[in-house]
Amino acid sequence: SYELTQPPSVSVAPGETATLTCGGDDFHSRSVYWYQHKPGQAPVLVVYDDKDRPPGIPERFSGSTSGNTATLTIGGVAAGDEADYYCQVWDLGADPVVFGGGTKLTVL
Amino acid sequence: VQLGQSGAEVKKPGTSVQVSCKPSGQAFRGFDIHWVRRAPGQRLEWMGWLNVNTGNTGYAQKFQGRVTLTSDSSTRTVYMELRGLRFDDTAVYYCAKASGAAAFDSWGQGTLVTVSS
Fold it and tell me: Which residues are within 8 A (CB) of A89 and not within 5 positions of it... i.e. 6 or more apart?
């Protein structure tokens, strides 16, 4: 089955840039989605189709893919950005929806 | 689209739970409702989908035979039933909307299901 690999945690100081990675195969042929999930809240889509932002998502959030790695970059990190971040793709295998393991972003 | 879910549930092991999801803000057609759960300390886990036009469904291998998704067009509500509850089914269950193989652009507020003896 298809798998997405994310580092369990990333820590950055306020105002710095957070780089969250997602490893997988065939990113050139599939779109990557990123979700922000804070405790007690519903997940929020922050990037779709690799690099596009939904309305209301700040420009500080940007996505990219290169080879077997998708990246979510959060510029000027603030305390309010602390959350778990998940990448997700669609797959033609038995389970069409695949989430990565999630990365916990901590703002120091 | 906003998705409104039913309230928290406490269930005993071996029983079943049904969680509802009611979309509002657009016509009840042209999209799929997916169910995703997050157990304490675990990742987001996809469970299955239902197309509100056709009622067609698909389920994650892990939940095949234990979960059923249904819809009622008269009440514009989608239901998720999980049977044979186990302690490790304790989780927050979310419904989410997608239009085909696209982003989950709307999510319900989540329903906490606690399995406890």
Answer: A2, A4, A24, A27, A30, A31, A32, A33, A98
